[in-house]
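Hi, here's the filled form for the chain we discussed.

Project: internal
Contact: R.S.
Residues: 145
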Amino acid sequence: MNLVKTVATALSEGTTPATTGVVRAVIESVEAERLSHMVAGNLEGVAGLCDERLDYVHSTGRRDTLVSLLEMLGSGAVSYDSILHNFSRVENLGQAVWVTGTMRVSLVKGGQTRQLQTLTTTLWIRHDNSYRLLSFHATAAPGLN
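And the returned structure, exactly as it came back:
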C-alpha cells in the first residue's frame, strides 16, 4: 500500500482506532528511517524528516536546533553504531503525534564507545501527507531493562 496515500486517508478520516493504528505504523516507519539516516551519517536524510523548528534534547542535557544537530553529526564528534527506539505510547492528536518510549543507543564519542539507555518523548507534526519531527527529548535511564 502506498504510504503517502495511507497517511492522507488516515488523516482525512480523523482519529479512530483504525486510523490510530495506521498513524502509529507511519510514525514507526519515519522514525526508523530517521534513525537509519543518523547511523549512516546521512545529514540530508535526517534534515528531510525534521521540522526546521526542531528542538532536540539529548540525554546529557545538550539542546540542539536542526542546524546545530546537523553540524554536530557532520563534525564526526559523535557517530552512531546503532539506535533502537521502542514506542510505549502513540497518541494521534490530529495535526501532531505524541510518542513516548525507550531508546537504546550505541555510539562513539571522543574515540570511546558508549551504550545509552533512555526514556524518550517525541512530537511529530503533520507536513503535507507525512510527518516531521518537531521535538525530541531523551532522559537517561541507566537501569532500563
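Let me know if anything looks off before we file it.
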